[in-house]
Amino acid sequence: MTAEELEAGLAAELAADGESVTEALDRWSARTPTRVFIHYGEHGLDLGYAEAKRATDTIAGNLARAGVRRGDRIAVHCRSSYAAALWMFGIWKAGAVYCPIDPDLIGDPLVEQLEATGPLLVVTERLLVQALEAVRPHLDRLPRLTVHDAVGPRPPHGYPEIAYANFLARAEPPGVVIDPADVGMIVHTAGVTGRPKAAVLPHRWLAAYTLLLRRLTTPDDVVHVDLPLHSLQGAFAGLARAAWTGAGVSLWDRFHPVDFWRRVTAAGATSAVLTETMVGWLSGAPERRGERDNPLSKVLMQPLPAIHHSFARRYGIDTVVAGYGQVETGLPIAAVLIGAEPGEGTPEALRRGLGAKEVKRVCDRLGVPVVPASRIVRRGCLGAPLPFTRVAILDEHDRPVPRGVVGHLAMRPHLPGLLVQEYVGDPLSIAEATRNLWFHTGDAAVFDEEDGLLHFVDRVVDRIRIRGENVSAYHIEDLVNQHPDIAVGAVFGVPADRDDEDEVVLYAEPEPGRPLDPDELRAWCVQSLPAYMRPAYVRIVARMPRTPNGRVEKYRLRRHFLGLTDRPGPAVRGVTVTTATATPMPAARPALAPALSPVRSALPPSLPPGKGR
């Protein structure tokens, strides 16, 4: 097959059911107008496909009335997944760019995301207005603001505001035809090579990212989505995938381990995306009778935990999709694992969607390996490359290494538009990531000699894993070093007691002559850092260990923290190491259950009313 024939075949595969998810949503609204598209569990609201089309058309039309044009950027800053879902599709129908903002961000991280995306409009909610107002003086240019749950008191603010009522009047969409090369999203990375970057992603990226998951989903499926819609898994692997295939969505604002199975069973959910942390929470629950009597048959686990097989057997999961995914690359590597043994999976009366033979046919056509879950006994199996991307393991000179040798995971797309286009305002980082015509993922991996599959090995760059997401140590350090009494701060992760998570450790060296009080530093972190970035352990040292060129030797600090002997001598010489707390600093975010959060889910927006129950 020639390169031209390969490209033509791949392009046809992507175009088979359209490369625009909004066109797919409109098609299903015509085919199945009364079928429930979204069941918003937080408020018992059902939204049919025809209602979803009407609502998102109205948002798009009113955006056009407000002066929004193709390529303009709209930020969605909401905890309400229902509001974020409608606005995501409405923004795309207007030809604009969806820019999700993590609603937990405060201070400088929030400023950075707003400055990087440069939105014309920010869609937010009452409980988040105060955080936006706090950063307003630090923004170079003020976006307009609209508050989707505008009924009721809210903090005053100085932003130019568009009344939410302006988006409720019936309006026809502007009739924008989306090209696969058009920019669809600006999504912030975890910051694997430094600060989080604003990744510019075309619509074709979304089509490729969801392709395998779409091929495994039918209109008979219900996709359970309880991950936030500023994440890839929630917005794209969950919601967009369902809209493309005519499936239903059971939508929640956040994951709740205690209530998870009740929610799944009540909605008849057949598919879900589970992070490693979520699998750990559910596996840690006391066993009970009838755990396999649930409709969940297909689960994407990313990254794949070591306990994937025992989890699948316990809860009767038929199919586990493993894969490698990140903002820049989408999902270029995957495998399908057969979880439960015959007769131990989803009960026949509850099973919907594709059966085992149909799943195998889909995988064979796309070149996705199908293997028994029992064969994958270690954490981090990624699978095999999908046909859209060439994948290689490279050495430090970007030369491929032999199978069985660990190297840098890198890839090249066979079609344009499958990878990140740019990092907003950061041309040097994108040039470094794409050097020598390879996109360098920042992760170390290996082609296993026995099973022939790719396996994740370690992090090439300094990352900390919190709640199943990668957080940049560099980013936390940059924020901490703004403290006026800190000369230099060093941050790294150490294994937490729970699951495969990390805890944040901060070593701080004070400015000369300016004593640093641990309790005051802890209080400053609470005020200045998002909860999930706050260090669990703080140590104050007189001087950091450094290399001859002045770089902090964090590996020595890690060994010091763990109480390990350091061959070159003590990591911290002749000083007292002060521990801010004998136990991990409490943080709001590691607790995943919504009951542990003081913030109540925002009410649905007035548009559309749906069918409350």
* Low-confidence segments: 573-601, 609-613
CATH fold type of one domain: GMP Synthetase, Chain A, domain 3
Q: In whole angstroms, how far apart are the ends?
A: 56 Å
Largest sheet properties: 15 strands, mixed
Derived from helix and strand composition plus strand pairing, the structural class reads: alpha/beta
CATH architecture field of one domain: 2-Layer Sandwich
Globally, the shape reads globular
Overall pLDDT metric: 87
| Radius of gyration over all CA atoms, rounded | 24 Å
- Per DSSP, the total helix count is 16
Using DSSP, what is the number of strands? 28
Helix percentage = 25-40%
Specify the CATH homologous superfamily of one domain: ANL, C-terminal domain
| CATH uppermost class of one domain | Alpha Beta
Q: How much strand content do the residues show?
A: 15-25%
Protein described:
Residues 26-412 form the AMP-dependent synthetase/ligase domain. Keywords: Ligase. With 613 residues, the protein is an alpha/beta fold. The chain has a domain at 467-562: GMP Synthetase, Chain A, domain 3 (2-Layer Sandwich), CATH 3.30.300. It has a 15-stranded mixed beta sheet that branches. Helix 5 (107-117) packs across helix 6 (126-135). The longest helix has 17 residues, at 49-65. The termini are far apart. Residues 573-601 and 609-613 have low confidence and may be disordered.
